[in-house]
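Per your request, structure below.
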């Protein structure tokens, strides 16, 4: 058991969100909270800022964060340990196969071969890796800022 001056290192899994802080990412950490009236758990989200000096996280990535022994700033209380799953590339940790929602990509491909593939079906083998659409459709790396008012003439997509 840790003494009163020591704090156990705690790890959390969360999803990266857009952040206005320099060298930090905003992370949504899900947790279950018990409603004592009906004895059911409901998903709640805690939002924390994690130190990311190398900027290895993009919006939508699933990351592993660690609680810092002492706060870096008033808001930054965690640090990014690793990017577990980049957005769009979910891999089953047990089998190592790529996953689409709740099915393996191999199973989806096999089902499409059996029943005939739709013309509009998405082909994962021909899809480019993430980052190809940078500056064309992907602006998640751009520096964001907080909008304090809505102006219909100002259509800047980087405001949060």
């Amino acid at each position: 058991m840790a003494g009163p001056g020591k704090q156990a290192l705690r790890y959390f899994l969360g999803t990266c969100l857009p952040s206005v802080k320099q060298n930090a990412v905003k992370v949504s950490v899900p947790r279950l909270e018990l409603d004592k009236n009906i004895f059911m758990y409901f998903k709640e989200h805690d939002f924390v800022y994690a130190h990311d000096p190398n900027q290895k996280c993009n919006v939508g990535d699933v990351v592993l964060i660690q609680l810092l022994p002492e706060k870096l700033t008033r808001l930054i209380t965690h640090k990014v340990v690793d990017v577990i799953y980049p957005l769009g590339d979910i891999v089953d940790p047990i089998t190592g196969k790529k996953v689409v929602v709740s099915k393996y990509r191999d199973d989806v491909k096999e089902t499409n071969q059996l029943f005939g593939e739709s013309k509009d079906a998405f082909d994962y083998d021909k899809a480019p890796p993430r980052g190809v659409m940078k500056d064309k459709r992907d602006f998640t790396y751009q520096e964001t800022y907080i909008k304090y008012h809505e102006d219909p003439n100002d259509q800047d997509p980087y405001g949060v």
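DSSP finds one helix and seven strands in the chain.

Regards,
D.
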